[in-house]
Design a protein that fits this description.
Length: 378
């Protein structure tokens, strides 16, 4: 390789690293009352957060300038079994009580609170949306070794999109739940090889995108930016992964993310006292802020990278992939079940073993892009 080429690659790599670090900015430690901050929401110019299991059914409103708790709102008819996320629509706040570390819960629920009541009182009542997973049949105790935990959801139009925290497979599934009151079955609408555990999600209506946060078993932290998507198939679009470990700190646990407006976001980290490689670390509950613009500046079009394409589509027995060197592909059905997975394949995929139908092809490339495309086999 020529020296000039090496220099270009070095500059390109350095620019990506620098942009990722500069994008995350520390704000302040959060109050000890929310040491287990588990969900995060920006509403009415204030942050709302809550703890997970062990706390009263309280929401805590935080002044974004000082970091102080300005108001505590108690939900009088709720119980905090394991609150993991908070979201909103025009009329309601939604709180996800669906943490399920052992895989045994049959009382998964989302509390719904009128914003008009929340705005005017410190004690409010809630309504309940109950659900179960359409693909869970085993409820035996299996702590941190199953795929039916969740810590993330967004509200979109008339549905709730929930993102699972898959301890066993290290992937994420997306489920759709009606946001109407009652008892529902959560239907799978996609799966993705996240290579880590998803802890929260934020929807950005301005560019119809999703931002997911999570961590790996090794303690690294990451963001997944999903855009050019259909909300009904959220992984069928472009997915950019950004490592934020250096900015937040190895061993941190990012539990909350919320969109402020435009490309601006908040992240919250819960308190942790953890040993890593024999070194004891005490990580305070903390708030961070970042702008998504720096990630967008590293987009495919900015650097002239060719688009990924699959063809023919529909196809019979062979699917061709163009635009990059493929390091991995995964084919799933519409329920998210993995049917084919291969590492370092050729750019031709044999589909002999698949029946006719609709499938999703997740493609990881050597230039660190990840795409999901819908494909039909006839």
């Amino acid at each position: 390789m020529k020296t000039k080429d090496i220099l270009i690659i070095f500059i390109f790599s350095s620019y990506i690293l620098q942009a990722q670090i500069e994008a995350i900015r520390s704000k302040y430690d959060l109050p000890s009352m929310v040491s287990e901050t588990s969900g995060l929401l920006f509403y009415n110019g204030k942050l709302i957060t809550h703890n997970d299991s062990g706390d009263a059914p309280n929401l805590y409103e935080i002044d974004t300038l000082t970091g102080n708790i300005s108001r505590t709102i108690q939900i009088t008819n709720a119980t905090n079994i394991d609150w993991e996320a908070i979201s909103q629509d025009e009329e309601y706040l939604y709180i996800g009580d669906f943490g399920n570390n052992n895989g045994t819960r049959r009382d998964l629920k989302i509390y719904r609170i009128l914003k008009s009541e929340y705005n005017n009182a410190n004690h409010v009542s809630s309504e309940i949306i109950s659900f179960s997973y359409d693909d869970q049949t085993d409820f035996s105790t299996n702590p941190y070794q199953h795929d039916f935990d969740a810590e993330a959801f967004v509200v979109y139009n008339e549905q709730i999109i929930l993102f699972s925290k898959n301890w066993a497979s290290n992937t994420v599934k997306a489920y759709s739940i009606p946001k109407a009151l009652g008892t529902h079955t959560a239907q799978i609408i996609g799966t993705y090889d996240s290579q880590g555990l998803i802890t929260d999600a934020a929807y950005n209506a301005q560019d119809n995108s999703l931002m997911l946060c999570g961590y790996t078993r090794q303690g690294s932290l990451f963001l997944l930016y999903l855009y050019d998507i259909s909300i009904d198939t959220p992984f069928n679009g472009i997915i950019e992964r950004t490592n934020i470990t250096i900015s937040i700190g190895l061993g941190s646990q990012i539990e909350g993310i919320t969109n402020i407006e435009g490309n601006r976001y908040f992240l919250s980290r819960e308190y942790r006292n953890i040993a890593i490689n024999g070194i004891q670390l005490e990580l305070q509950q903390h708030l961070f802020r970042f702008d998504n613009g720096s990630f967008n500046s590293l987009s495919v079009s900015s650097f002239g990278l060719p688009p990924i394409d699959i063809y023919p589509n529909p196809t019979g027995d062979i699917l061709h992939i163009s635009g990059a060197k493929i390091v991995k592909f995964v084919i799933t059905d519409s329920k998210g079940s993995v049917l084919i997975t291969k590492k370092n394949p050729s750019n031709q995929i044999q589909l002999d073993e698949l029946n006719a139908g609709i499938y999703f092809v997740q493609i990881s490339t050597s230039d660190q892009r990840t795409f999901t495309k819908q494909m039909m086999k006839y």
